[in-house]
Amino acid sequence: MRDANPQTIYLKDYTVPEYLIENVELNFILDEQETRVVSKLSLKKNPQCKIANPALVLQGEELDLVSIAIDGTALDKTQYQQNKETLSIAHVPQEQAFILAIENTISPKANTALEGLYLSSTMLCTQCEAQGFRKITYFLDRPDVMTRFKTTLIADKDKYPVLLSNGNKVAEGELKNNRHWVSWEDPFKKPCYLFALVAGQLECIEDSFTTMSNREICLQIFVEKHDVDKCSHAMQSLKNSMRWDEETYDREYDLDLYMIVAVSHFNMGAMENKGLNVFNTKFVLARPDTATDSDYEHIEGVIGHEYFHNWTGNRITCRDWFQLSLKEGFTVFRDQEFTADQTSKAVKRIEDVKLLRTRQFAEDAGPLSHPIRPESYIEINNFYTLTVYEKGAEVVRMIRTLVGENGFRKGSDLYFQRHDGQAVTCDDFVSAMEDANDFDLRQFRHWYSQSGTPTLEVTQSYNQDKQTCKITLKQSSKSTTEEPLHIPIKVGLLNSDGSSAAVYTANEETADEIIIELKEKEQSFIFEQLEEKPVVSLLRGFSAPVILKMEQSLEELAFLLSHDTDTFNRWEAGQKMSCQVILGLIEDCQKKRTLQMNPLLLEAYKNVLQQPWDDLSYFSLLLSLPEENYLAGQMDVIDVDAIHTAREFVKQALAEQLQSQFQALYQQFHKDESGQFDAGAIGRRRIKNICLSYLMQLETEQNYQLAKAQFNTAKNMTDQMAALSCIVNSNNPAKPSCLESFYQQWKNEALVIDKWFTLQACSSAKDTFDTVQTLLQHSAFELSNPNRVRSLTGAFSQSNQLHFHAANGQGYQFLADQIIALNSLNPQVASRMVSALTQWKRFDNARQALMKTQLERLINTADISKDVFEVASKSLA
Ligand code: BES
Ligand code: ZN
User: Fold this and answer.
1) Which of 69, 539, 576, 578 is 20 to 30 A away from residue 197, measured at CA?
2) Exposed, middle or buried: residue 846 (CB in 10 Å: 0-12, 13-18, 19+)?
3) Which residue has its alpha carbon closest to ligand 1 atom 8?
């Protein structure tokens, strides 16, 4: 139920906690209907708090209070006050520490929001970040209260043979009535959002890791019985992560035990609870025949991410939730670099930038735009955004670019040394980087407080007499009152023969490329000793999260696509070419002109196809056209039909003209592999499958057979899914039978069935909307499972631009129906689904009106959660 006026929390209102909790002893008598929690808090007045005799205000929601006592004396009802969100005690001891004992009950089974203690299938588990601990017991639920936890779990031996919590197992025993108990102690102080418990019938796979100081760590992954054969990749990923953090940041794991539990009902991807990570099954389970190469890569990345939080998040945590990017931005940056080191640096960077530009740039240009350190929120769960995560990681990356790789290590060393065991701010992080390097980041700090993507306009002039080239950069952001940002821009220059020109500035040769630091609104940089006009390769490696506006002809781009030594900019040149061509065709579509393929683009593709490539994954990226949602971002008014038509036209033309090359490549790399997860095999599958998708564009019997054969004989999920996806997006008559046989083959593997839903939800086929409606009624569809909801409703609304934005508004109405249904079950997941409607201003008037109608409907729905209310109301503002 929503308050008439949900409360907004402001960063500027931060004050230190009035009380601290040194230790807590938690006792759980676990039961799915009613769990009993007995908590003993050792409290004391915070010496830093200057208020005299402040009331003790604990957070607690949806709890049934049984009893409350201070230092052994029970409080009566006049001594405390309770409301929906807090329990206040006006008078507590001030001079010395005291014990507050609280007993309360909760109902895990009724908890469909999946926050606090809940039931997933038959196991009990917790999710406490950001503010879920208050749904377990009364506490000072804020990250700057760091406490030592001791936890005892009591439960039925048959239903819950495995009982887990943070830290080390210290004791266990048997009780009467077929019950048993286990005690856990976590020696590290932590905020309560890192608390976790898990109870259930779990199987475990075990391994060990020897740290750099020769300590042996026991590693355990807990899953349901039928999934034990899908854990080896996750285990390997964990060991890789542990080694990487030692080698890259000199950070060693601190407990003797590291546990991961996979649960099938989870709002997010995974959670870094101290010593006991809880993961969505999607980011643990993999077997070559059930998971694709991209699943394997994501699993490694997410395992790494949660592991890296042990230093960047757990040992050093956030002072308040406005500082979320302190841990998330930095940790995303760390997991990006980890994945880059395990796979292909070039490919990883391109994929991260693609995500940033299609999704984060859209967020930053829309009504929910906010800085990576937001200034206010209604519901903190709404701020686990692409901006806080992905742009936050870019900001950390820019710091590294500015201070250099060694400087960055010095900065992180100082940060860990200074703040270990503390709850700190983004500013503390930047200060450590500054102090370790004697580098001024004062102006750079604006990146933390300014929202929106800056635009860089670039002009360039060459002076033959002086042999200089001048580049002028002008930065602007959506509001003119904003301070200019400090932007690192990596630049290289190319000679007309394709070789790199040495970069001279102020008569000094630097290297093949340099970092220029833009600090003014407008600033020029002069490059010297250039005998001819160079071709400029700007913003190499996407060195800053900006929109670059620079006139470049197709010829110039084709030149960069052939010669740029920077792998990112080389790919980018090809994308810019395709983009220019497709945007031209979009206009032709809108003006009802006949479409014609641009010969320069065709030529560029031919060139790419002719060259030998070592990194086949990179090669396949060079062959990929920009996605429909990226193209949408380049238009003033998004025209989903024209985008689809124009892009398909180009794909078709390429398929027709380059058919023999695609066929040859397909044959060359189509091996009947069982799905080894190594770079070579992944690259072969990737290139082969992109060729297949071009060939399927031709809709010929021969190519239908090709896809069908691959589908039928595939021994790994990458190949099976790629073939099925081609079939689903074509008119191949085998479509219904393939979908049915896939379902029958995999109906007992929930994660594979998610893929089956997604594939159909994302199809460009004409009948997709009806298919989605039908799938909602399918016996395997479940509103209470977030993965299932994301696989159908989420995929359709966020990844099927063409059909979701159907002119009659049926997609919008469908989404609002689903959000309303979900709102009362799971507000967090419901709220995330609203994002597809927030971009309404980017569409034509008719669609705008239809989308607004649905947003208004949401905010006027009775009992709308504050999660959905915040996103929907801000979308309309
Ligand atoms: N701390 C988050 C998980 C989280 C966020 C739980 C918000 C509850 C509320 C975790 O470290 C995280 O960031 N997970 C990501 C995946 C990661 C690889 C970016 C997620 O769950 O999406
Ligand atoms: Zn995280």
Assistant:
1) 69
2) exposed
3) 129
> Taking Cα atoms as reference points, which of 323, 276, 311 lies closest to residue 128?
276
Task: Report yes or no: 285 and 231 within 8 Å, Cβ to Cβ.
Answer: yes
Catalytic positions: 306
The number of residues making up the chain comes to: 877
For the segment 493-525, what is each residue's pLDDT rounded down to a tens digit? Answer: 999 999 999 888 877 777 889 999 999 999 999
Could you say which ligand is closest to the alpha carbon of residue 272? 1
Query: What does DSSP assign to residue 675?
Result: -
The pLDDT tens digits for 529-553 are: 999 999 999 999 999 999 999 999 9
> How would you label 809-825 residue by residue, b for 16+ Cβ within 10 Å and e otherwise?
bbbbebbbebbbebbbe
Give, in order, the Cα–Cα distances in Å from 875 to each of 694, 837, 839, 846, 851: 38, 8, 8, 17, 10
3-state secondary structure labels for all residues of 139-163: ECCCCCCCEEEEEEEEEECCCCCEE
- Residue 531, judged by CB atoms within 10 A of its CB (0-12, 13-18, 19+), counts as exposed
Cβ neighbours for 76, distance < 8 A, ≥ 6 positions apart = none
pLDDT at 1: 46
Instruction: Give pTM, 2 decimals.
Output: 0.98
Alpha helices in 309-445 (DSSP H): 324-342, 345-355, 361-365, 386, 392-419, 426-437
Predicted confidence (pLDDT) per residue in 9-18, tens digit: 999 999 999 9
Using CA atoms, how far residue 784 sits from 113, 280, 789, 794, 820, in Å, is 9, 14, 8, 14, 13
Does the beta carbon of 115 sit less than 6 angstroms from any atom of ligand 1? no
Ligand nearest to the CA of 304: 1
Neighbours of 452 (CB within 10 A): 17
Q: What percent of the residues of the chain are helix, what percent strand, and what percent coil, each to the nearest 5?
A: 45, 20, 35
Ligand 1 atom with the shortest distance to the CA of 298: 18
CB 309 near ligand 1, within 6 Å: yes
Tell which one of 305, 388, 787 to mutate to probe ligand 1, the residue whose CB is within 8 A of the most ligand atoms.
Answer: 305
Alpha helices in 33-154 (DSSP H): none
Q: Residue range 367-382: average pLDDT?
A: 98
Q: With a 6 A CB cut-off, is 272 part of the ligand 1 pocket?
A: yes
Nearby residues of 712 by Cβ (< 8 Å), 6 or more positions away: none
Give the integer Cα–Cα distance in Å for 263 and 820: 25
Whole-number Å distance between alpha carbons of 134 and 120: 19
Q: Which residues contact 836 (CB under 8 A, 6 or more apart)?
A: 797, 798, 804, 815
